[in-house]
Amino acid sequence: MVNVRTALKNGIAQLREANVPSFTLAAELLLLHVLSRNRTWLYAHPEEILTDGEEQRYFELITRRAAGEPTQHLTGKQEFWDLEFEVSHDVLIPRPETEHLIEVALDRLALRELRAGRPQKSAGKGLRIADIGTGSGCIAIALAKELPAANFIATDISPAALAVAKRNAQRHAVADQIDFREANLLSPVGAEQAGPQPGKLANNASRDVHESQVTSHDSRLFDLIASNPPYIGRREAPSLPREVRDHEPAAALFGGEEGYELYADLIAQSARHLKPGGILVLELGHNSLPAVQPLLDALAWTNVGITNDLAGIPRIIAAERL
What we know:
single chain; alpha/beta; two-stranded antiparallel sheet; 14 helices; 41% helix; elongated
């Protein structure tokens, strides 16, 4: 017979011994998940007795967390932008620092309207927005909740990730706003093999055709393109926490050997698909800025700005299309 207080105490002790980060929070979240209760109830009912099934399930989850499995995978959910998202091994777990991308995107859109002498489009009417590498769908869905009249395209190279994103969009009642498409950045998966080989003169024209299949016949389609691309270098893999290295999808983590290799294609494609005055907002890795910022020094871009996260790390880079 184990009560809530004892179960939580023992769970915390096991996770602390296993050197699990934020072990108290993890033990609480797992117990809340098993009991389908909130934190207020948990601490108001310390003498409540767990059933045999609840006790067994809880300590099974504690054992898995102690072995390195992320809490979010065990509960199947993560909060982002005050919304609860389904997560799985198929998608990157949404991070708090990505909320800066939402803030910058909304601020840039409002500022663009003010500069043009127009009323702020608070509902996003007429806006077309792309979320590249959508994963769980957290960026597109958060923006859709803030801009209920805007329309979105959200791409990902992983069909399994898109399935999760679609369920999240349905959960938050924005599925009608978002068109989810399987694509490599803005190019349909496999399009690279369908056209001429790299280095041939026709390659750029062919790539534009394939990208337009994802967007529309008008390649200058979007008011905003947002992306949290893979930005960890493969050489950094041994130093990653085991929760990340062993359990999150490699395709969503690694952006090449150095980590910033995808930005060049992403920025070049965005330049072709943003309307004049359109906004590009990208999340950065902790050491990506020196490699990425020069890519926005081209004549196509203006009003380049950097936003630091709460740790003072350059986290978001934004620019406008001329």
